[in-house]
Design a protein that fits this description.
Chain lengths: 115, 111
């Protein structure tokens, strides 16, 4: 079956602009996660949705970052007034329940470059 | 908070050599432990996992055992191939369903 998909695969923007990154989870997965991976580092947690609600947004770095999942499937990560330090790979993952040891399956990521 | 530490630096070895990548963790509870792999140009893929102490995860010739007494989850493979060249990440899943990753180790297998 189809895995997690993310669009766009690459995004180049200018400092100060607004960007939206989209994630389509695996069909039927109720939990969705966003992570950010800087070059040479492991992914870092941003936010976790269970259904439509954000169960944990403690990893969002500041109020320029916001994410939604209005129908409990597709999610959009929104970044306002982008800064050069926001340049990174943004990864989305989904899992079936979010409890116990269920595996998180990752998408290919969106590489964001802020000039 | 919960965290994962991987050994420093890339790993370069010859084909058919034995591979070990060390991973230790710090956690307040009893996390699940994972190894993810990132092949060149591809996304993160789950390699193996273990959900409780003394569990052994295995896949594609790789193994790792959840050692609670040493808070470790070292990855091993007895005979590596060129196709195993990739970046390997150790991770734990905390009680809030967040994954905490180590920095990753690049493995280069020379023919």
């Amino acid at each position: 079956g189809a895995g997690v998909s993310q669009t766009p695969s690459n995004k180049v923007t200018e400092k100060g602009k607004y960007v939206e990154l989209r994630c389509d989870p695996i069909s039927g997965h109720t939990a969705l996660y966003w992570y950010r991976q800087s070059l040479g580092q492991g992914p870092e947690f941003l936010i976790y949705f269970q259904g439509t609600g954000a169960a944990d947004d403690s990893g969002l770095p500041n109020d320029r970052f916001f994410a939604v999942r209005p129908e409990g499937s597709v999610s959009t990560l929104k970044i306002q007034r982008t800064e050069r330090g926001d340049s990174a790979m943004y990864l989305c993952a989904s899992s079936s329940l979010g409890q116990g040891g269920e595996t998180q399956y990752f998408g290919p990521g969106t590489r964001l470059l802020v000039l | 908070g919960d965290s994962v530490t991987q050994m420093e630096g890339p790993v370069t070895l010859s084909e058919e050599a034995f591979l070990t990548i060390n991973c230790t963790y710090t956690a307040t509870g009893y996390p699940s432990l994972f190894w993810y792999v990132q092949y060149p140009g591809e996304g993160l893929q789950l390699l193996l996992k273990a959900t409780k102490a003394d569990d052994k995860g295995s896949n594609k010739g790789f193994e790792a055992t959840y050692r609670k007494e040493t808070t470790s989850f070292h990855l091993e493979k007895g005979s590596v191939q060129v196709s195993d060249s990739a970046v390997y990440f150790c991770a734990l899943k905390d009680g809030n369903n967040r994954l905490a990753f180590g920095k990753g180790n690049q493995v280069v297998v020379i023919p």
